[in-house]
Write a structure and sequence with these properties.
Layout lengths: L29 H6 L4 H13 L11 E2 L3 E2 L3 E7 L5 E7 L9 H20 L7 E5 L10 E5 L4 E2 H5 L1 H4 L4 H21 L4 E2 L4 E4 L5 E5 L1 E4 L1 H9 L10 E4 L5 H11 L5 H15 L10 E4 L8 E3 L5 E4 L6 E4 L40 H18 L8 H16 L1 H18 L8 H9 L5 H16 L4
Antiparallel strand pairs: 1-3, 2-3, 3-4, 4-6, 5-6, 7-14, 8-13, 9-10, 11-12, 13-16, 14-15
InterPro entries: AGP_Transferase, Aminoglycoside_PTrfase, Kinase-like_dom_sf
Organism: Xylaria flabelliformis
Protein name: Aminoglycoside phosphotransferase domain-containing protein
C-alpha cells in the first residue's frame, strides 16, 4: 500500500494506551459501526480469555471495552482484562453485509492464518491471532480478527527523535541503525517461504501452506475515478482481485492492464513503464515469488525507545510477490526521494523548522541509511543470489508504485528516465515529453531504446544509490 506521508503516519494501533488511532477517520467507519453489535465485544473477549487462560478460575473475566481507534482501513476496539492483559478486536471498514464479499473474506482468512503460521515458524515479532471470523454472520455482525497488542513506541517517533524529542544525533543514529538491523533480520526470515506463483496463501487443515490463490489489491485508479470522474466523495477502499500467476511481470502490470489508458500521453507513459519492467532481471535457481509484508512502511513497526524491534503490524494483504519487490527490498521510508510526487522534504527541515506535516530525511541521509539496510540484509542472507534484490528494489519498488498509482506515474518515470539517460553516457539532454510521444506512437528509435536499456542496466547495478 502506497501512502502519502504528508502527516505523521497513521498505523493500526496496537495498544489501548496508544493514541495513534485518531477520530479524523471516524466518518469512514460510520456504516460498519452502525451494524456492529458492541455489546458482544466483551463477551467475545471473555470467551477467548477463558479458553486461553483456563488456569485463572475466576468469574470476573469480562474485559473493559475502550474507545475505538482508527487505522486506514480498520477500526480497533481495545479489550482490557483485570490482569492487565490487553487485546484488540480489528474490524474492516467494509465489514457490512452489503459490502463484504468473497475476496475480502478470503483475504481476512489468509491474513489471520499467515500470521499464525509465521508466529509458529519464525521469530518475527507480530501480534498473536487469538480468534477470527471471515463472515458477517456472527455475534458481532461484522468480520473481525482478535489480536494481542504489542507495547512500544512507533518507529516514526524514534526515527525522528532528534526532531521530536531533541535526541542527540549520535544517539539517534545508533537507534536508527539498531532498528534497521532488527527489521532486516525479521524480513529475511520471510525468504524461507517461497512459491511458484504469486498470491495470498492457502492453508491445509493442519495450518501448513498448500500454495497461493487470488490476492485482493487496492485499486487506486478506481478510487481516483470515483472521486474525480464520478464525483462520489465516498472514502472506503475499492479492491480488485488478482489471480495467482507464475509470471512476475504480470504482478507489476496488473493495474495498468485493468485500466488501459485512453489519452495519448498516458499511453506513452504506460508503454515506457512496461518496457522498463520487461528489463527487470529475475533471480535464477529459485522460486520466483516470496512471502512479503504488504505495507513495508514506517507506520507498521513498533520498537523500544532504543530502537529494538518489538512488533510488525498490519499484515492485511500479506502474499507471495515477485522476489524483485519481495522480502529483501528496502523499507518504504528509505526510498521516498525516488517518488517525487509523494516526497515532502524541505530544506527548512534541516534547520529544525517543524513542517506542517511529517518530517522527512534529506536525499543524502536516505542514501546513507539505504547502505546501512543493504549491509544488514547482506549479513542476514544465506543464499548467493544472482541479483542484488535489495539494491535493485530502489528502482523496482518505484516502478510498481508507478504502475499502481496514477498520481505518481509521470514523476517517477521522469525521474528514473533522467537517471537512466545520464548513465547511458548520452551527451544531449533527453526530452521526456518527446520520448513519451514516441512510445505512444510505437516509434522509438532503436538507438534511443538501446541507450535506455544500457542506462537501466547500469542503474540497477550501481552502488551507493
Amino acid at each position: 500500500m502506497h501512502n502519502k506521508m504528508t502527516q505523521p503516519p497513521d498505523r493500526e494501533p496496537e495498544s489501548p494506551l496508544d493514541p495513534a488511532g485518531n477520530y479524523e477517520n471516524a466518518e469512514l467507519f460510520s456504516e460498519v459501526l452502525s451494524v456492529l453489535n458492541k455489546n458482544e465485544l466483551p463477551l467475545l473477549g471473555q470467551d477467548i480469555f477463558r479458553r486461553t487462560q483456563p488456569q485463572l478460575d475466576r468469574t470476573d473475566t469480562k474485559p473493559v471495552v475502550g474507545e475505538p481507534m482508527y487505522g486506514s482501513y480498520h477500526v480497533l476496539f481495545p479489550l482490557t482484562f483485570y490482569t492487565g492483559l490487553c487485546w484488540l478486536v480489528k474490524i474492516p471498514t467494509n465489514g457490512t453485509a452489503d459490502k463484504w464479499d468473497d475476496i475480502s473474506a478470503s483475504s481476512l482468512v489468509a491474513e489471520a492464518k499467515t500470521m499464525q503460521f509465521l508466529k509458529r515458524e519464525t521469530t518475527i515479532p507480530l501480534p498473536d491471532v487469538l480468534d477470527f471470523s471471515s463472515t458477517t454472520q456472527n455475534a458481532l455482525r461484522c468480520p473481525y480478527i482478535l489480536l494481542s497488542y504489542i507495547s512500544g513506541v512507533p518507529l516514526y517517533d524514534v526515527w525522528f527523535g532528534h526532531r521530536l524529542s531533541g535526541d542527540d544525533l549520535e544517539v539517534n543514529r545508533a537507534r536508527r541503525t539498531r532498528a534497521l538491523k532488527s527489521i532486516a533480520s525479521a524480513m529475511i526470515q520471510l525468504g524461507n517461504f517461497s512459491f511458484r506463483t504469486s498470491g495470498s496463501l492457502i492453508f491445509a487443515s493442519d495450518g501448513s501452506p498448500l500454495g497461493t490463490g487470488p490476492l485482493r489489491r487496492v485499486d487506486q485508479k478506481a478510487i481516483l475515478d470515483r472521486w474525480f470522474v464520478h464525483q462520489d466523495p465516498a472514502d472506503d477502499p475499492i479492491y480488485a482481485s488478482y489471480a495467482a500467476s507464475s509470471d512476475p511481470k504480470a504482478y507489476y502490470t496488473f493495474m495498468v492492464d485493468q485500466h488501459p489508458p485512453e489519452k495519448s500521453f498516458q499511453k506513452g507513459l504506460v508503454a515506457l513503464l512496461r518496457q522498463l519492467i520487461s528489463w527487470v532481471p529475475e533471480p535464477s535457481g529459485t522460486d520466483r515469488f516470496v512471502l512479503t509484508h504488504p505495507d513495508f512502511d514506517i507506520q507498521n513497526f513498533i520498537v523500544s525507545e532504543d530502537g529494538d524491534l518489538r512488533g510488525i503490524i498490519d499484515w492485511d494483504g500479506v502474499a507471495a510477490v515477485p522476489r524483485t519487490i519481495g522480502n529483501a527490498k528496502y523499507p518504504g521510508w528509505l526510498t521516498r526521494d525516488w517518488d517525487p510526487a509523494m516526497y515532502g522534504h524541505l530544506e527548512s527541515m534541516e534547520q529544525g523548522i517543524e513542517p506542517d506535516g511529517a518530517w522527512e530525511d534529506s536525499p543524502p541521509c536516505l542514501a546513507d541509511y539505504r547502505q546501512v539496510y543493504k549491509s544488514a540484509i547482506a549479513k542476514c542472507q544465506r543464499d548467493d543470489s544472482s541479483v542484488d534484490l535489495c539494491r535493485m528494489s530502489l528502482i523496482t519498488d518505484n516502478l510498481l508504485i508507478a504502475a499502481d498509482d496514477p498520481r505518481c506515474r509521470s514523476e517517477i518515470l521522469r525521474d528514473i528516465t533522467r537517471r537512466i539517460w545520464n548513465r547511458a553516457g548520452q551527451g544531449s539532454e533527453l526530452d521526456f515529453v518527446e520520448l513519451i510521444t514516441t512510445f505512444a506512437e510505437n516509434n522509438v528509435d532503436i538507438s534511443v531504446m538501446n541507450a535506455l536499456q544500457l542506462g537501466f542496466n547500469v542503474l540497477l547495478t550501481e552502488e551507493g544509490l
